[in-house]
Amino acid sequence: MTESAVAVTQHFRPEEEKFIQQASDWIRQSEDEYRGILTRFLNPREQYILQTCVNRAKDLVVQFNGVVPHAESQRAFIAPSFYEIELSDFELALLEIKYPVKFTELHHATILGSFMSAGIERAVIGDILSHQDQWQIVVDAKMVTYIQQTVEKIGRVRITLMEQNLDHIPVTDRDDWDEVFLLLSSLRIDTAVSAAFDISRRMAKSLVEQEQVRINWATMLKPDHVIAVGDMVSVRHYGRLQLVMIDGLTKKDKIKTVVNIIRR
C-alpha cells in the first residue's frame, strides 16, 4: 500500500482498507498514464472515500454520474485536471423493463434479486428507477447486450429489456428524504437508528441482531458498529437514513449531526 493510502486508511475503518487500496490504484494509474480512469458503480460511502483520496492527489479531479441527479449508485471518472469530462466517459446505459403491467407488479427487491440470480454482478448495476408502473435500470453500457440476453424473467414474469436514450433523463418517483438535525450520544448504529426512527435503544439493538439493518447494502449484526459520514443505513419496515455531516459536540458532549431520513 502506498504512503498516501496508508495515511488515508488511518481515518477510515479497517474493513474499508481494501477499497482504499483500490482507490489508490485508480489514482496512481490516472497519474502515471495521464488519462481518465472509469470505475465500477460505487455506493455513497465509496464515493465519499474516493473523493477524499482524490482530494489528496495533485492535479486530479473526480466526477460522479448515475444518470439521474442524486443517484445512490454512481460511476466515478478520475482524470487530470485539464480533462473535460463528458457524459459519454461514464459509459452508462438505461434499460427499461417491458412486462405485462395489467397482470403483475414489480418491486425493487425482486428486480435486483432476479439480476443477481442470473449472475449479473452488482458492480455493473446502478440505480433501479421507477415511476408508477414504469421501471428502468442504469447499467454499465458494455454489459447491455449480455444483460438483455441473460435476464429474461423478473421472478416468474417474462420480461424484455429495452435500451432507452440517455438524452431524455427518466422521470422517477423521488424518495421523500427529510434533512434532520440530531443530537447523538454516540455514532453506534443502534443509537442512530433509535434517534432517527424514534424507537427505543433496546428495539434498535434487537433490529440489528435480527438482521433487519443493512449498512451500504451489507447486513450488519453488531449494534455497537460505528457509522460514518456517507453511510447509508436501511432498516426494514422503518426506512433509511444517511449520515450527511458531523458538526462537533455540544457542551454536554452530544454529537451534532445532520442526517437524511426516509420514514416508511
Automatic annotation (TrEMBL):
Keyword Cell cycle appears in the UniProt entry: yes
Example of a GO MF term: RNA binding
GO biological process, one term: cell division
Keywords: Cell cycle, Cell division, RNA-binding
Highest taxon in the source lineage: Bacteria
Domain RNA-binding S4: 187-250
Gene3D superfamilies associated with the record: 3.30.1370.160, 3.30.70.330, RNA-binding S4 domain
Name this polypeptide is given: Cell division protein (Putative)
Organism (species): Leuconostoc kimchii (strain IMSNU 11154 / KCTC 2386 / IH25)
